[in-house]
Write a structure and sequence with these properties.
The protein is α/β, with parallel strands linked by helices and 291 residues long. The protein has 10 helices and 10 strands.
């Protein structure tokens, strides 16, 4: 009888561990798997040029460039995770109507830019760096800004060496990768789900071939001597207000923090509309437009 109980406990334990392991593997593949999308067949309703920006010998970044007024400034727009440049069309249309040159890109493993795995800003930071250099070369007399959303914001901050920017706007950015994972596990799987992080984080490290503590924007933000505007929503459960406040406190001045009442994690422009456009226009004009 005793041996039978022990055997039953062992079988149940192995079964539970197998289920947990399979869940971790599936989650890892879902989250880091590439998100290709045919983008260029969907032309914007304002004039853009298709661009290809070399990153290294292996691939080029695909994007759209909308030319504005010379000397008025240029803005790079970087989308969120599992999205593409189409997400930034509303922002691009608005900024271009204000006279800015606008570059919208697909990060690696997104849209039409090749890549086999999403790396939470590690490889994507090289795409952003190449895009900023492209803007510097194309518009040498303009100041350059960038707007990044979630993954796009992380790619901007994690770039090493730091990007040559004159201003940046970071939307819904997490301070640490661990907090980002834990919040999502808790949100989708309940309180018990957060305990999966102890297996999921090492698995992410294995998949990406780098320590996950290299993916913490809060460790880099204090080294960036760039005017920065942080934007977050009061109802954001992916990145909490206290987490965004820690990023703000760690950043160098000049810095601004805008908590949008009633907004969640995504689509700040869609949610806030004219308020968003006014806030963005005021911030960018202060740092990008020459007298």
């Amino acid at each position: 009888m005793y041996n039978r109980i022990i055997r039953w406990i062992l079988i149940q334990s192995v079964s539970v561990l197998a289920v947990i392991s399979i869940t971790v593997v599936i989650l890892g593949e879902i989250v880091t798997g590439s998100a290709p999308t045919a983008v260029e067949t969907l032309q914007p309703d304002f004039p853009v040029e298709t661009v290809r920006i070399p990153v290294n010998r292996n691939y080029v970044v695909h994007g759209w460039l909308a030319r504005g007024t010379s000397g008025h400034g240029a803005v790079l727009l970087v989308h969120s995770i599992r999205s593409n440049r189409l997400e930034m069309l509303g922002r691009g249309r608005f900024l271009n109507s204000q006279g800015y040159h606008v570059l919208m890109i697909d990060l690696q493993a997104h849209g039409e830019t090749p890549g086999d795995r999403i790396t939470f800003g590690a490889r994507e930071s090289a795409d952003v760096a190449a895009a900023v250099n492209y803007l510097r070369d194309t518009f040498p007399h303009d100041r350059i800004g960038a707007i990044g959303v979630t993954l796009g914001a992380a790619a901007i901050v994690l770039a090493n060496p730091p990007l040559r920017l004159d201003a940046m706007i970071l939307e819904s950015l997490h301070p640490t990768f661990t907090e980002a994972v834990t919040n999502r596990l808790r949100l989708h799987l309940g309180e018990a789900g957060e305990y999966l992080q102890f297996l999921l984080l090492p698995y992410f490290s294995f998949l990406l071939d780098l320590p996950v503590d290299q993916l913490n924007p809060i460790d880099r933000i204090g080294n960036l001597a760039i005017p920065v505007l942080f934007i977050s929503g009061t109802l954001d459960r992916h990145t909490t207000r206290s987490e965004v406040k820690r990023l703000y406190d760690a950043a160098l001045p000049p810095r601004e923090l805008w908590i949008v009442e009633g907004a969640g994690h995504y689509n700040m422009h869609t949610f806030a509309g004219k308020s968003y456009e006014t806030r963005i226009a005021d911030f960018l004009s202060a740092y990008l437009q020459r007298p």
